[in-house]
Design brief:
single chain, 7-stranded parallel beta sheet, 12 helices, elongated
Length: about 375
């Protein structure tokens, strides 16, 4: 299929399986992976990724919206699907129809879910300091009163760590403080025989799990599941053999000879300092390649690392291929992935664009075919 594509993604499912086994090995006994397959599985294709995870025996997933959960059900995904984000009351029927577990984002939202009039499975979000979603850990009376709402079938409680990727002592202390707050709330909520599952860790909470003292029922693996880190980290790369699942490649459409002093691309933002060969590549920001890579990014062509020159366009970008011998139209340019011993990882491309790999991967465009290799 990819032989005829202008640009495409390659998905290495063996790498996905490897990452699952690696992350599972880092979890204590009794703690299950709850993979985050939101944002189209971080751009990889939610149906394909969740289908492979289901074949591996994984039974719990989390998504950002009810629509994402409904799409997984339509793709035949069974088990628990937790909606991490807000669902409008007009879409509560979607939760019921597709047996989705909704997050109670705060006390008042719990009242809205109760008012729907039908029993819904939910997990209660607890804000332990990130101040995003969840009822405050300090409002124990409000949290406890949620169990009095008979139409809320509460099966879990969770929080989210906001500095688990940090390396400073201050960031580590803040993570431990969040955990202590969470465990205090859990202990209080379990009085009176209340039973529920718990989860706290994302990818970095798993990778840096030795900094935590508690044991939980689930761990919400996100970016690490896809073999990437949010930002480059030599230390974590050394400790963990995370293998990238996705590669992004595109075709070279044509090659031009550019003389000294000549410009190329919009605004003639790049000018040749001497005679150069530049290649037009059939991929651009509409495919998810950030415009911020203009004059800053690199790609791999015929085993050589070559620079992006000029401005990244909606559908194309330019590479200086002068140092890559024998380049012809139809050749592959690798934006993320490997080529003859060289590699560009998503976190490296993200750093060049001034962002994180989570954003790069999740914004890869729908017009890129996903090809399993």
């Amino acid at each position: 299929m990819y032989e005829t594509c202008r640009a495409w993604m390659e998905l290495n499912m063996e790498h996905l399986r490897h990452n699952v086994r690696l992350l599972q090995s880092l979890l204590p006994q009794g703690c299950a992976l709850m993979p985050a397959v939101k944002a189209n599985a971080y751009g990889h294709g939610a149906a394909a990724v969740a289908g492979e995870l289901q074949r591996l025996g994984i039974e719990d997933y989390c998504v950002a919206s009810a629509e994402e959960g409904a799409a997984l059900r339509g793709a035949g995904i069974r088990g628990q699907i937790l909606v991490l984000g807000y669902t409008h009351p007009w879409e509560f029927a979607l939760l019921e129809e597709h047996d989705l577990t909704q997050t109670v984002v705060d006390y008042d939202y719990g009242r809205e879910l109760e008012a729907y009039g039908k029993e819904l499975p939910v997990h209660v979000g607890i804000d332990t300091g990130m101040h995003r979603l969840g009822e405050s850990w300090e409002n124990l009376s409000r949290l406890e009163s949620l169990w009095e709402r008979r139409r809320l079938r509460i099966t879990g409680v969770y929080s989210h760590l906001c500095t688990s990727d940090g390396e400073t002592e201050e960031e580590r202390d803040w993570m431990r403080l969040q955990e202590r707050r969470f465990l205090k709330a859990v202990q209080s909520l379990r009085t009176g025989g209340r039973t529920f599952s718990t989860h706290l860790q994302g990818s970095y909470g798993i990778l840096n799990g030795k900094r935590l003292c508690g044991s939980y029922d689930y761990a919400r693996a996100g970016i690490a599941l896809y073999g990437a880190l949010s930002a480059p980290s030599a230390e974590l790369r050394r400790r963990y053999d995370l293998r990238p699942v996705a590669s992004v490649k595109a075709r070279i459409a044509c090659i031009r000879e550019v003389g000294a002093g000549e410009g190329a691309g919009y605004g003639l933002a790049w000018r040749a300092d001497c005679a150069r060969r530049i290649a037009a590549v059939s991929v651009g920001y509409a495919d998810g390649i950030p415009r911020a890579l203009s004059g800053a990014g690199r790609a791999l062509v015929r085993g050589r690392s070559v620079p992006v020159v000029g401005r990244v366009c909606m559908d194309q970008l330019l590479l200086d291929v002068t140092e890559a011998e024998g380049v012809r139209p139809g050749d592959e340019a690798v934006l993320i992935g490997r080529d003859k011993g060289l590699e560009i990882r998503a976190e490296e491309l993200a750093a060049q664009a001034g962002t994180i790999s989570n954003e790069i991967l999740s914004r890869l465009g729908a017009r890129l075919p996903r090809v399993e290799v």
